[in-house]
Amino acid sequence: MKRTEEDVKQIHRLVDVVDKSVLExxxxxxxxxxxxxxxxxxxxAIDISEGVIEExxxxxRYENVRFSVGNIESVRLGRRFDVILSTWMGYMYLNDVPxxxxxxxxxxxxxxxxxxxxxxxxxxxxKMVRMLIGGKAKSAAFYNELEAAVSKFFTFxxxxxxxxxxxxxxxxxIERFRLELKSEYRLIxxxxxxxxxxxxxxxKDKLAIGNDSLAYLCKKRT
Length: 222
What we know:
The structure is a single chain. The protein has one domain: Rossmann fold. It is 40% helix and 26% strand. It contains eight helices and nine strands. Helix 4 packs parallel to helix 6 (140-153). It starts with a helix and ends with a strand. The model has no long low-confidence stretch (mean pLDDT 93).
């Protein structure tokens, strides 16, 4: 809950959603959607996973929120939005990132704002993932390609948002990385990964991992 509150505060600091029409891409089960619904005029939230959309729809108690299954590479909603949000979506799994960014541009009002939030390849958390799985982890090259695609359609301000994950035990840290490998990289943590983490954590004096984000605040090119 605390992480969600912090993420929503970051979004409100970066973009005004009050009384705006919002398209949320990669909404999951509505973790960010529902808090934003308190301020936005309406939210259309899409995700490629039918399962999480079904869950989000079951949980939805807001008349101004609509969930739908959709792939941002191909979805056509037939309208434009004041604000488009893409928060920590798995761009690495898209078949055609420039096509997705082009489609986002096509769904944004001419004076609208596109907020792209993603992980930061130089933070401690991502470096630890790289320690575990090497070249399979997100790299500077991946983010450079994403940024190049965004720059074709948008001008943007780029911000590094400092963050930290705080845990109650080293075992909880290991379980968090187990989840990361499974959900983000479709890999199963084995004993070798766990031993590397334990060695790393043995040199830390507190149960916290730096977890920064990159924020791209984008306006359409004219």
